[in-house]
Amino acid sequence: MSVVVIQFTTLDGIVSDPDGTEGTPYGGWLFRFGPEEIAGDRFGLGRTLDEGVVLLGRSTWEAFSRLWPGRDDPFSARLNAAPKLVASRTLTDVSAWANSRLVDGDLLDAVKTEQRDVVVMGSLGVVHALAAAGLVDEYRLLTFPTVLGAGRPLFPAGGPPAELECLAAERVGALVLTRYRRARD
Known about the structure:
The chain is an alpha/beta fold. The chain has helices spanning 46-51, 58-67, 74-81, 107-113, 124-132; strands at 3-10, 53-57, 84-87, 100-102, 118-121, 138-144, 164-172, 175-182. An eight-stranded mixed β-sheet has the order 4-3-2-5-1-6-8-7. A hairpin with a 2-residue loop joins strand 7 and strand 8 (175-182). The radius of gyration is 16 Å and the shape is globular. The mean pLDDT is 92.
């Protein structure tokens, strides 16, 4: 089992409000380069979606549950069919998006005992909790050539240090897709 974090990020590491729905002054940076830059399986999830589980926090699940079920392209079909775990202290019903269920009990315990690969999309609070516990094995980042100077970063100041090894870097239009895994001792 491995934990793979998927994030859209700016050049200065900001991951918050990519679509502008949070109403921040810097939000909406994700769509400045056109939808074709992010369409399809840019992160190379393929088999991981077929055999693993997607882990989402409440806010990301709510946004995705409005967006993805109505899509039927190959990537959307895979994502819609994938089992989804939702980490939330407030949601009681996750029936709006097929194959979703609430994390039962403690998030870290649920991830530690999961037998399948876990893909975390967005869900910054979940990512920070998993990173603090040393549970993130790989980061797949799609970096936008934008510097915001404000917002919530993927790696916050004072967060746990991490030694990472670059597995790949590839230009995708105006963006760069990078894959990093936790360096092994």
